[in-house]
Structure formats: structure tokens, C-alpha cells
Amino acid sequence: MIKRLITHTCIACLGLKIMISCTSMSAEYSKHREVQSENFAFVSNEQEASQKHTYYQVTKVVDGDTFWIDNLQPGGLKIRFIGIDAPESRNAFKKKKQFYGKESKEFLTALLKDQKVRLEFDVDSLDPFNRTLAYVYLENGEMVNELIVKSGKGILMTVAPNVKYEELFVKAQKYARENKLGLWAEN
């Protein structure tokens, strides 16, 4: 009987530890979401609708799929395109410079130079590196994510649950491959 009581107590303790762990993870996730909301100053559905008319100045291009914007917060905000991947243009951390990385970065730099962009979010708005994930639009309405893939400067890379425009990116990549553009060129 005492052995059974100890076993139940240990299981109860384990359950408590799991609950505490989940609670602290949830609190940390909520904290990231609050910071995210503060950075853009919108959280409600009404405010989300006004997001469609908010444009941010691009301040720096990091590589072919990452850049910085001025969001009126100190230091700005780092944006990572949803649904695509571009070759690395430089050695950074564990990532090594890759074939076509320089060309990919030059394409994005030329595209975003002196531009303002509008951001659209999907289910998850942050990646594991705390970068803001977004679909990015130029003022003329063109989606930059699609342009990168369609020109062959990047490839399709969808990660669930952010799959809103997956079919669009599949078509863009098919176009680049069939027309031997960018990474798909025969060299």
C-alpha cells in the first residue's frame, strides 16, 4: 500500500512538473507574441485590417531571404520571407556560403533598395531564431516572396503551418525551372 502511494505521488509530481514546464513554455511564447504585437502596434482584428495599408522602410538586406525594416522601434525588425529559401551569401554561425548566394542577395538588394514594403503574416509569425516571418509586398502590390522564386533566386520551402501561398510558390518554381532561370540555369 505504501509502495502504491509513493508511485502515485511520483506520477502526480511528474504531472506537476510537466504542467509547470508547459505553463512556462506557454508564458515564454506569450511573451514573444506580446513583443511581436508591440513591435507592430496591432493585435485586434480591426488593427490587423489596417495592416494592409501599413508600409515599412527597408533598411538593410542580409541575404536573399532576410532583411531589416524600420518599424519605429530601436534597432528595427528583422524579417524572414515565408515559404521560400535562398542560398546563403556569407558564412554566418553554422551556415556556410552557398552557390548562387551572392546573386540572390544582389537581386533582393536591387529589388528592395529605397523601397517600402507591406507585411502579411500567417499562422506563426516568428521562427526559431526570433525573426519575424512574413509575406512581403512592394507598394505596386507585387509579392516579393513569389518574385524571388519565380526568378530562380530562391526556392520553395514551406513549413507548416505557414502554407497559405504554397500553391502560388509551386507555380512560381515550376516557371523558373521550365525557363531555366537563376538557380535552374544550365551552367
From TrEMBL:
Chain ranges of the TNase-like domain: 52-186
Alphabetical UniProt keywords: Signal
UniProt-listed SMART domains: SNc
Signal peptide region: 1-26
PANTHER family (alphabetical): EBNA2 BINDING PROTEIN P100, SERINE_THREONINE-PROTEIN KINASE 31
Name of the featured protein: Thermonuclease family protein
Originating organism: Sphingobacterium tenebrionis
